[in-house]
TrEMBL record:
It comes from Thermovirga lienii (strain ATCC BAA-1197 / DSM 17291 / Cas60314). It is an enzyme of class 2 (transferase). PROSITE patterns: SIRTUIN (PS50305). It comes from the Bacteria. The active site is at H131 (proton acceptor). Its EC number is 2.3.1.286. PANTHER family: NAD-DEPENDENT PROTEIN DEACYLASE (PTHR11085:SF4), NAD-DEPENDENT PROTEIN DEACYLASE SIRTUIN-5, MITOCHONDRIAL-RELATED (PTHR11085). It holds the Pfam family SIR2. This is protein acetyllysine N-acetyltransferase.
Length: 262
């Protein structure tokens, strides 16, 4: 098939992926929430995803900036639950695999849609949190900022944390729907320059992150056991779709590569 890996019957996808990694010199990972489900953090659109919950309102409003300004308590109820989950989590096998790939010089960077910091916890250094993160919070009126520890105290002591200087609502540095994403230009440059792009654990429905693979000029390997939106994918780039569990798959890949971590 022009531009795509053929559906090779009975092939060993892990072996093919391992061979592509061995050939590549400039690998980039675009990760999504599916990367962290085996760590105990629910994704959004998977079978047990947050957006499948019956919350009485559209769950996507959790991260809607207009709804946040109207009723911040809806977001903070979810955010406290999320932060509790973060307390005991550890990076998954796949997080550690990609950290090891960066350490051995093959992986140039990670563009993550996730805010759980598991890539950094696994030892990855060049991580771009395109949807922001929880490292700092700020007052939406006077812009006073708080670091992670300080903001945790506020989040768990007030239903809606408010600024002690002006009384404004405090918001974590997470990108909500309707806000500009972060590191977009750097991310686009990384993808353009890579010879192998991994898209792991993402449904590829939220732009502009979902548009990044169309900038790829090498090969693309997608690992997602659920539904991947293919409408933004380039048709002229060899693309391998692996519909398996992420951690099981990368354990099989590493069987053929032998990276030493754990
Ligand atoms: N192995 C393989 N695939 C998995 C696993 C797993 N262990 N766990 C989940 N998945 C798949 C799900 O089936 C789903 O298709 O990963 C995909 C995750 O997709 P989403 O939940 O849509 O997550 P993501 O693509 O990161 O969402 C993008 O949406 O709401 C916004 O800001 C939020 O960053 C998020 C953005």
């Amino acid at each position: 098939m022009e531009g795509c890996f053929e559906k090779i019957p009975n092939c060993n996808l892990a072996q093919i992926c391992a061979d592509e990694i061995k050939k590549a010199n400039n690998i980039v990972l675009l990760s999504g929430a599916g990367m962290s489900t085996n760590a105990g953090i629910p994704d959004f659109r998977g079978p047990n995803g947050i957006y499948r919950r019956q919350l009485g309102v559209n769950p996507e409003r959790i991260f809607d900036i207009d709804y946040f300004l109207e009723d911040p308590s809806f977001f903070y109820k979810f955010h406290r639950e999320f932060l509790q989950t973060l307390k005991n989590i550890k990076p998954t096998y796949a997080h550690k695999f990609f950290a090891a790939l960066e350490k051995n010089g093959k992986l140039k960077g990670i563009i993550t849609q996730n805010i759980d910091s598991l890539h950094q916890m696994a030892g990855s250094k060049n991580v771009m949190e395109i949807h922001g993160g929880i490292w700092k919070s700020f007052c939406i009126d006077c812009n006073k900022t708080w670091d992670y520890e300080e903001s945790m105290k506020l989040v768990f002591s007030q239903e809606v944390p408010r600024c002690d200087r002006c009384g404004g609502i405090i918001k974590p540095d997470i990108v909500f729907f309707g806000e500009m994403v972060k590191h977009l230009e750097e991310s686009q440059k990384l993808v353009k320059e890579c010879d192998l792009l991994f898209v792991v654990g993402s449904s590829l429905v939220v732009t502009p992150a979902a548009l990044l693979p169309r900038l790829a000029r090498g090969k693309i390997i997608i690992v997602n056991k659920g539904e991947t939106n293919k409408s933004y994918l380039p048709s002229n780039i060899p693309t391998l779709h692996v519909e398996q569990d992420i951690d099981e798959f990368f354990k099989a890949v590493n069987y053929h590569i032998g990276l030493d971590f754990e």
